Amino acid sequence: MAKLDQYRQYVQQILEEYSRYRPAYGEVEMELIIDRERDHYQLMSIGWHDQRRIHGTLIRVDIKHEQIWIQHDGTEGGIAHELVALGVPKEDIVPAFHEPYRRQYTGFGTGTESVQPTGTAGSI
Hints:
By secondary structure, the chain is an alpha+beta fold. It has helices spanning 2-19, 79-85, and strands at 27-35, 40-49, 52-64, 67-73, 93-95.
Protein backbone atom coordinates (compact mmCIF):
# COMPACT_ATOMS: atom_id res chain seq x y z
CA MET A 1 0.00 0.00 0.00
CA ALA A 2 2.92 2.34 0.64
CA LYS A 3 3.91 1.98 -3.02
CA LEU A 4 0.48 3.11 -4.22
CA ASP A 5 0.42 6.02 -1.79
CA GLN A 6 3.83 7.10 -3.12
CA TYR A 7 2.62 6.83 -6.72
CA ARG A 8 -0.46 8.91 -5.90
CA GLN A 9 1.76 11.55 -4.33
CA TYR A 10 4.12 11.62 -7.32
CA VAL A 11 1.30 11.93 -9.86
CA GLN A 12 -0.41 14.69 -7.88
CA GLN A 13 2.91 16.52 -7.43
CA ILE A 14 3.62 16.50 -11.17
CA LEU A 15 0.11 17.61 -12.12
CA GLU A 16 0.14 20.39 -9.52
CA GLU A 17 3.41 21.65 -10.98
CA TYR A 18 1.95 21.75 -14.49
CA SER A 19 -1.23 23.40 -13.19
CA ARG A 20 0.83 26.45 -12.20
CA TYR A 21 1.75 27.13 -15.84
CA ARG A 22 -0.36 29.69 -17.67
CA PRO A 23 -0.66 29.83 -21.44
CA ALA A 24 0.81 32.96 -22.99
CA TYR A 25 -2.42 33.55 -24.90
CA GLY A 26 -6.09 34.05 -24.13
CA GLU A 27 -8.05 33.77 -20.94
CA VAL A 28 -7.16 30.16 -20.18
CA GLU A 29 -7.12 28.47 -16.79
CA MET A 30 -5.55 25.18 -15.84
CA GLU A 31 -7.99 22.98 -13.91
CA LEU A 32 -6.73 20.05 -11.85
CA ILE A 33 -9.19 17.21 -11.32
CA ILE A 34 -8.31 14.50 -8.79
CA ASP A 35 -10.41 11.47 -7.90
CA ARG A 36 -8.36 9.73 -5.21
CA GLU A 37 -11.05 7.15 -4.52
CA ARG A 38 -10.88 5.80 -8.08
CA ASP A 39 -7.28 6.85 -8.82
CA HIS A 40 -8.04 9.17 -11.75
CA TYR A 41 -5.95 12.32 -12.22
CA GLN A 42 -6.44 14.94 -14.93
CA LEU A 43 -5.22 18.40 -15.85
CA MET A 44 -7.34 20.41 -18.27
CA SER A 45 -7.07 23.78 -19.98
CA ILE A 46 -10.33 25.73 -20.04
CA GLY A 47 -11.14 29.20 -21.30
CA TRP A 48 -11.15 31.41 -24.39
CA HIS A 49 -8.62 32.61 -26.93
CA ASP A 50 -9.94 35.36 -29.18
CA GLN A 51 -13.43 34.04 -29.94
CA ARG A 52 -12.45 30.39 -29.77
CA ARG A 53 -13.32 28.06 -26.89
CA ILE A 54 -10.41 26.23 -25.27
CA HIS A 55 -11.32 23.00 -23.51
CA GLY A 56 -8.94 20.08 -23.53
CA THR A 57 -6.95 17.60 -21.54
CA LEU A 58 -3.26 18.27 -21.05
CA ILE A 59 -2.53 15.23 -18.85
CA ARG A 60 -4.67 12.22 -17.88
CA VAL A 61 -3.32 9.50 -15.56
CA ASP A 62 -4.92 6.48 -13.88
CA ILE A 63 -3.40 4.21 -11.27
CA LYS A 64 -4.48 0.61 -11.71
CA HIS A 65 -2.97 -2.81 -11.13
CA GLU A 66 -0.25 -1.05 -9.06
CA GLN A 67 0.96 0.78 -12.15
CA ILE A 68 0.73 4.37 -13.37
CA TRP A 69 -1.20 4.41 -16.65
CA ILE A 70 -0.56 7.56 -18.68
CA GLN A 71 -3.72 7.88 -20.77
CA HIS A 72 -2.79 11.23 -22.35
CA ASP A 73 0.35 13.34 -22.13
CA GLY A 74 0.32 16.70 -23.85
CA THR A 75 3.55 17.91 -22.26
CA GLU A 76 6.69 18.61 -24.23
CA GLY A 77 9.07 16.34 -22.35
CA GLY A 78 6.72 13.61 -21.18
CA ILE A 79 5.73 12.94 -17.59
CA ALA A 80 6.97 9.34 -17.76
CA HIS A 81 10.53 10.64 -17.56
CA GLU A 82 9.61 12.81 -14.59
CA LEU A 83 8.16 9.78 -12.82
CA VAL A 84 11.35 7.79 -13.49
CA ALA A 85 13.41 10.68 -12.08
CA LEU A 86 11.30 10.47 -8.90
CA GLY A 87 12.14 6.77 -8.57
CA VAL A 88 9.23 4.97 -10.23
CA PRO A 89 10.48 1.84 -12.05
CA LYS A 90 9.86 1.97 -15.80
CA GLU A 91 7.88 -1.27 -15.69
CA ASP A 92 5.36 0.45 -13.36
CA ILE A 93 4.66 3.19 -15.94
CA VAL A 94 2.33 2.25 -18.79
CA PRO A 95 2.15 4.60 -21.81
CA ALA A 96 -1.52 3.72 -22.39
CA PHE A 97 -1.78 6.20 -25.26
CA HIS A 98 0.20 3.69 -27.37
CA GLU A 99 -1.51 0.67 -28.85
CA PRO A 100 -1.02 -2.38 -26.61
CA TYR A 101 1.20 -4.18 -29.14
CA ARG A 102 3.54 -1.14 -29.39
CA ARG A 103 4.07 -0.68 -25.65
CA GLN A 104 6.68 -3.46 -25.54
CA TYR A 105 8.99 -1.25 -27.65
CA THR A 106 8.76 1.84 -25.42
CA GLY A 107 11.02 0.68 -22.59
CA PHE A 108 8.13 1.11 -20.17
CA GLY A 109 5.42 -1.20 -18.84
CA THR A 110 2.93 -2.86 -21.16
CA GLY A 111 0.00 -3.05 -18.78
CA THR A 112 -0.04 -6.82 -18.87
CA GLU A 113 2.62 -7.47 -16.22
CA SER A 114 0.31 -7.53 -13.22
CA VAL A 115 -2.97 -8.45 -14.86
CA GLN A 116 -3.79 -12.07 -14.16
CA PRO A 117 -6.27 -14.12 -16.20
CA THR A 118 -9.65 -14.36 -14.49
CA GLY A 119 -9.95 -18.06 -15.17
CA THR A 120 -9.81 -20.72 -17.81
CA ALA A 121 -12.61 -22.57 -19.46
CA GLY A 122 -12.89 -26.06 -18.08
CA SER A 123 -14.40 -29.18 -19.46
CA ILE A 124 -17.23 -31.09 -17.92
